[in-house]
Design goal:
The structure is a homodimer. By secondary structure, chain A is of the alpha/beta class. Chain A folds into 3 domains: about 10-55, 434 Repressor (Amino-terminal Domain), CATH 1.10.260; about 70-170 and about 295-320, Rossmann fold (3-Layer(aba) Sandwich), CATH 3.40.50; about 170-275 and about 325-340, Rossmann fold, CATH 3.40.50.2300. Chain A is about 45% helix and about 15% strand. In chain A, strands 2-1-3-4-5-11 form a 6-stranded parallel beta sheet, covered by helices on one side. In chain A, strands 7-6-8-9-10-12 form a 6-stranded mixed beta sheet, sandwiched between helices. In chain A, α1 crosses α2 and α6 crosses α12. The interface between A and B is large, with 53 and 53 residues. β2 (about 105-110) of chain A pairs antiparallel with β2 (about 105-110) of chain B, so a sheet runs across the interface. The first copy, chain A, binds a DNA duplex (30 and 30 nucleotides) through α2 and α5.
Chain lengths: ~350, ~350
Amino acid sequence: MATRRLTQKDIARLAGVSQATVSFVLNGSPENANRIPAETRERVQKVIRETGYVADPVARRMVKGLNRILGVFTYEPAFPSAQADFFTPFLLGIEEAAQELGYDLLLLTGAGVKRRIFGENVRLRLSDGCIILGRQFDRDELTRLVAGDFPFVAVGRRDDAGGPVPYVGGGYAVATATLVDRVKAMGHRRIAYVGLNAGAESTVDRWIGFQPALGNAELVYTQFAVAQPPGETLDAILAARATCVFFTELADAIAVDAIARHRGISVPGDLSIVVLGNHIRAEEHGRRFTSFSIPREAMGRAATEMLVRRVENDAPVEQVLLDCAIVEGDTLGPLSTQHIRNT
Amino acid sequence: MATRRLTQKDIARLAGVSQATVSFVLNGSPENANRIPAETRERVQKVIRETGYVADPVARRMVKGLNRILGVFTYEPAFPSAQADFFTPFLLGIEEAAQELGYDLLLLTGAGVKRRIFGENVRLRLSDGCIILGRQFDRDELTRLVAGDFPFVAVGRRDDAGGPVPYVGGGYAVATATLVDRVKAMGHRRIAYVGLNAGAESTVDRWIGFQPALGNAELVYTQFAVAQPPGETLDAILAARATCVFFTELADAIAVDAIARHRGISVPGDLSIVVLGNHIRAEEHGRRFTSFSIPREAMGRAATEMLVRRVENDAPVEQVLLDCAIVEGDTLGPLSTQHIRNT
DNA sequence: CAACACTGCTAATGCGTATAAGCGCTAATG
DNA sequence: CATTAGCGCTTATACGCATTAGCAGTGTTG
């Protein structure tokens, strides 16, 4: 246990050469490699093989600057089961891409309660660059990151923070607009929207896609708050004689759908439901909501590849939105005759 | 972008002191801290605050030897969805413990197809120690780890490999024996065992707990192979007039249970089923099998804490088995009168 | 035969930090 | 008044490696 780690000096001593020679044998550049004859090289390599020596990556990094390590920072802990379904697909994509590109991942656990990038001990800097994951972004930290020289890529679109933020996001606005078009094609003209319309970029994007796509349809009810009993929400939707309701949160949709079913209100017969994004596996709740899917794994991959481009080639800031596939589901139907009669 | 990172030298210049003074201000040990008057300290800290300087963890590690980073090595990729349910609970425990102890996690992605600890560039060594996760262990690498001076802890019991292996495992043998006792207390005397009884330690442990606990019960059928159609397995179990069957693999149990149900054979009325370990959430398949639960999260936590003890205090090798709680389930019932008649 | 190039190495340096050792100064002590 | 004991710093060194510069010896050229 007390046996100190082997160093190049040890190898050099055992092989009867200098430390520099060992270093050359290990990573001889084309010009310098051939300056060491095969015989000496063999002798050194024999010692390396026998001792199982490997260069200390820390010292290596000291002089080379790069580590082939990518940091992954999450503002929320990544693995707790409540979050796991959300984070795992991202991490899967990140891990796969990192492996292909020959990078390891440094998972930053965030010291103490407050997770911060710029904390006391920014061990983050050990990595060559970092991916930032999570819904809650600290504005100030983002600004500092943009201003600084540390390469990073955000997963999820981010507004400018003293400069453009490199990101890989989901095309929520486009997908939302597509769903609105589909709803209108089904004949719906009286529409409700339940969910936030401000705050995080991902939330805003949905609203931005939604609003202009409405066209000649009428937004008869909006509920931008969240904490309301689902029964009341349903009452309000029906009172406004909406025939189709958009939810930003799957959980809200599930709750309202359950109440509707309980009251004998048919979905989509009497009321169509559309969810803007699908965070959880379909199997967990019986319903397949009409919605769009977030390409989380692909986002992880793309972000990783973008980060490596920035690290290795000092590539310029890129901003990418990946397409979200429409999930047909079975909660959106054509306007019923009863609806038409009521109008 | 071209702005080089700040170093202590820069801070020193700006504050009009020496580099060493900056270092003292940053991490003054009790004896040395008070050697620097508040005024100077303030001046230096002001510059640090204004510039946002943070010490390079690499250089820090160079001199301190430790990095507050724990490596996590998995022989199989951790996040692919097939594996995710298996690995996630471990990672959850590891992440929580690491966070509490102030460590970050270095996830080793394994270069290329073959995942190896001792590869070309053992990036692992950047961490202070490592946790090894996964069912498939490379014997040779384990031996080298045991022989070496790099601190590690295995998750899952491991046989000696040229010396005792530090691990946190599950008490499968004890839990299995408990289940056997319970089965016997229900009156069962004709028992079947389906699953491997050799190979990985976790498999062997189940068999080791099973065999001696049988006592006066009779092992009327064993199937140590795996790849057999579930129908044939069921036929063989029934032909042997077993009244209770133990499975090591949940998947096998699910398959046989499904066939039995399809054929109108009642579980546990006609045949009791016990599963030795529960790998997947109960909700995913309808049945709650009588089994034991593997405390994966606790294992991750314990392994992390053990590793930190080894890293920080050079603690001796520990080998711990955590209790597996018995899952009552509804696939184990008392011997039916029909069974008794048949005997 | 002097000048020079090439071979096969070694010595020296720097990366950014922590820390032991030391140095000039003032105040307290004998 | 000589000595010592803090005080408030600075200087110097080491960590393990990559890399540049250079040096001794041999051959090659003009």
